[in-house]
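so the lab meeting is tmrw and i was supposed to have these ready like two days ago... anyway. pasting both below. for each one the top line is the aa sequence and the line under it is the structure tokens. i havent really looked at them closely yet so no promises
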Amino acid sequence: MNNHFLKFKDISTYDINEITDRAIELKSGSQSNVLSNLSAVLLFEKPSLRTKLGFWVGVQKLGGNPLYFGPEEVGLGSRESVRDVSSVISRIADIIIIRTFEHEKIHEFSKYSSVPVINALTDHEHPCQALADIQTIKENLTEIKGSKVAFIGDGNNVSRSLSYALAGSGANLVIASPNNYQIDDKTIDCANRYAINTGGSVTKISDPKKAVLNADIIYTDVWASMGQEKEQEIRKAAFERYQVNENLLDMASKNVKFMHDLPAHPNEEISENLLYDERSIVFPQSENRMWSQMALIEKIIKRK
């Protein structure tokens, strides 16, 4: 892997196992001070709970000093140019974690940064979430290779990163979305090529009931992501039959587990109490954001 982590395929399929196995070790009590006497800047243009908390506490657990900048403080690309901000921060901090809208912005930022840059979310990808998802699936399945995961919902940044992560881990991902909201063919082709040596695959269909047959994991996300609020009602109508509920889980493997990257909207993409169903592993999945991000940072810093 290179020193930046901007999109999931910046790491190799071998790196997926190494990072997520290390995350499980850290969660089990293994210690690391890889960030001792180092500072990590969290530069966020989008509000956050899990991403900010997981990185903040994770950096501290690694012995580092987290520094947070919200959207009103920097004005990335407006108050100051992306190049200027990158040039300033990378001369002072040791690693930079960015949560923004346009994926092009984080690419431009990394171009001028002299220290590693991590994508904490863009409109195109959510690679740190996908690492946490692999860790969570490993903790709950006997074997991730050859397993089936059904993603029900929008072909968005979460499903895009998940395509690389799951196929790269040897799993078979089926993404069920309504017409006009399906994941792009380029991502499917690239993810399948990325996983050429793992036996994993990504396919897309429109029928959620067919997607969940024999699935070991059922995963969903919100129908309208941050920045898509004006599309809320249109999307709600388009995704009406794509709600993940107890009945849909019953159609899958008898030991199926349910995942959601949160925040969730009960009575929209999920039924009212699904987060607390005995098959839900949503909250361990949320916790794993911290552990997988710690393992990622450790690997990046050790490669500097």
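ok protien two:
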Amino acid sequence: MLLALSSDQEFVRETTERFLVEQTPPNEVRRLQRDTAGFDADYWRRGAELGWTSFLVGEAHGGGTISGAGLVDLSLVAYEFGRHAAPGPLVSTNVVAGALSAHDAQTEVIADLLAGTGIATWCAPELRSFHGSWAPTVEIRHDRAEVVVLGKVSPVEAAGQAGHLLVTGRDGDGITQVLVPASTAGVSIAPLRTADLTRRFGAVTFDDVRLSQDAIVGAPGEASTDVDLQFHRTLAILNAEAVGAMQAAFDMTVEWAFDRYAFGRPLASYQALKHRFADMLTWVEASHAISDAACCAIDEGSPDAAELASAAKAFIGQYGAEVVQDCVQLHGGIGVTFEHNLHLFLRRFTVNRALAGTPAEHRQRIGAILDGWEAAA
């Protein structure tokens, strides 16, 4: 989270925090494990009223930012989602809403997303090791007045709950995106298992799905730049959530170490643990910093946005795992029980770490970006 927030940004963050504390305490998160959707529809609608789905949408469509930097504002909400292991399709809905708004497409769908009465998700292409290169698992064809979609995408967040699917597919030598209503004939969704108690994922199959040309979002065959931005936004939101989960786990563990006594002294007073806490705090603070830097770069369209986005995902994925695992170990036996709240943050971090590329994959992307710059020089 940014070190210096405006009063309006701080208000949004505090409002989101209070709402999540009230609506999704740990026992409610546990209860939602048995819920098909993983979140309550009224909860999501009320969250949308707080602006959760509006920051990447232009004012002409009813959205808007607080600071003029929509992704930065959204990262404040994502951070609180991580700190409370909160339910809801924050990443997928915002990425789709932003994509539709940028092309003035499907305005009725945008209105539903802003109101919290509709859910959308992105059926993204597979990640490749170098910037600007994708491996879509879906093929898009043009048959006279129709667009035909064929293929399978997995995993897709909130696939079973979404009313619309933004599909990125190979269209000849280019990339095209289409918005597919989930109820369209030929669309089938198989649920997948996940470690997170409230996040839901599915495998989506498109079997000769036919749509009108109006379903195309942007210019046919020219969506590569849009996909880059959507991917970087996804990384920024995931990173902010992951940092929130790290912070929650660390704070909980420090409090535990001061409250727990061994041989008449708090655990936190022992030098070996002090050193370990110092390492963990360094990694947490560095994760805050690199997450914020990447988020700002993406929002500003900086030339180094791709490098910073991958650097943030790689760093947070590697050192955040160290932090959260250490928190579990420092709690001792109670840290691995279902009744303790710590595993909620471990689960959220673990899933976020795996989504949109692992640390190793992003280190490869950084190397490829740097190689490209050297070749251009």
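from a quick look at the 2nd one: Residues 225-376 form a domain with the Butyryl-CoA Dehydrogenase, subunit A; domain 3 fold (CATH 1.20.140.10). The chain is about 50% helix and 20% strand. will dig more after coffe
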